[in-house]
Amino acid sequence: MKNGWSEVSLRDIATLTRRQVLVEAGCSYPEVGVRCFGKGLFHKPPRTGLEVGDKKLFALRHGDFVIQVTFAWEGAVGIVAEADQSFFGSVRVLTFEVEAERCERRFLLWYFRTKAGVDQLARISPGSAGRNRVLAIGRLGEVRIPLPPLAEQQHLVAHLDAIEARLTRAQKLREEQEVELQAALRSAFHQLEARAEWKPVSEVAPLAWRQITIDPEASYTEYGVRSFYKGIFLRRKVPGSAFSWQELYRLNTGDIVFSNIMAWEKAIAVAGPEQDGWVGNHRMLVCEPRRDLVLPSCLHHYFMTADGFAKILKASPGTAARNKTLKADRLMEIEVPVPPLAQQQAFDALCQQVAQLRSTRPSHVAELNALFPSLLDHIFNS
After folding, report:
1. Which of 23, 28, 79, 299 is the most exposed, having the fewest neighbouring CB atoms within 10 Å of its CB?
2. What is the largest CA-CA distance in the chain?
3. Ranges of residues in the chain whose predicted pLDDT is under 70
4. Is the pTM of this model over 0.90?
């Protein structure tokens, strides 16, 4: 324990306070939820008293410290802000009045964003599956808080809040820059479409089934495609002996890949040089662009437009996600824009410039975000 710090029970500094309200059928009751990892409260759509029925609701008060009992093991804690006061919490949302003379509320919040703090909540939330891990309210006294003098708490809170604010601003700036880059690409691509012929995918990027003969002694790198245009990822590296009946197909640089079971969720990507020679199963629909007609960047970008993605959805019939399968024959029938090759090359150069800008942007935000948990643990536990 650090010099001047003491260890206290959570019950000694935070009193569980339940303000049950009388639910009336004709009234409206907006509720809060609590995000995991100390990310605070969020607002749910209101329900009428009739919809609430015989379930209990509790009033929130500005400054309450909140723990959500079914996700306490994952750090579902927060503080009630002024904007939350007109909302209500269910029986699963515990509200505590913190003894202000001894403990700064945000100090408590920051502690429960450390691994040690979350581990304590997890320890008194018995169960194996997430949905069965309910915090045992009677064991809250077992949770121990390392507590410095109040002035030091306030200093630490101000320091941590300032770091988080700077990280949030930097992240927002990156997001704004990304929006601007996407807008520039979108504008340039619309100009291409205006000068394009339209041809079916079967003519410009036919399916490429490059089946390989599996060698039981060889090793294979199998890939998948992330949703929301997030690219190709390495699923696993396995020996050929692991494939008892599956057929495998080779991927080449520049291929356009569609996950036939997740294309409806934008699992569409271009294979880069680093993925050349990777293998996929029959669920990966691989199209090989004819470079004399269409460049991979242009074809891929079309499927990122609202019009192009709408055609993918139409070619993926079904209602439930697991049944929304992209049909290979329908994919081949989709008509895509084929601008003059010189204009495609100019657009491809623009795409490369954008990729270069993304790669050279400062990475300190991501690095600091990754280091932040270690910083917290050092402050509270070293």
Report:
1. 28
2. 75
3. 1, 129-131, 320-322, 360-371, 382
4. no
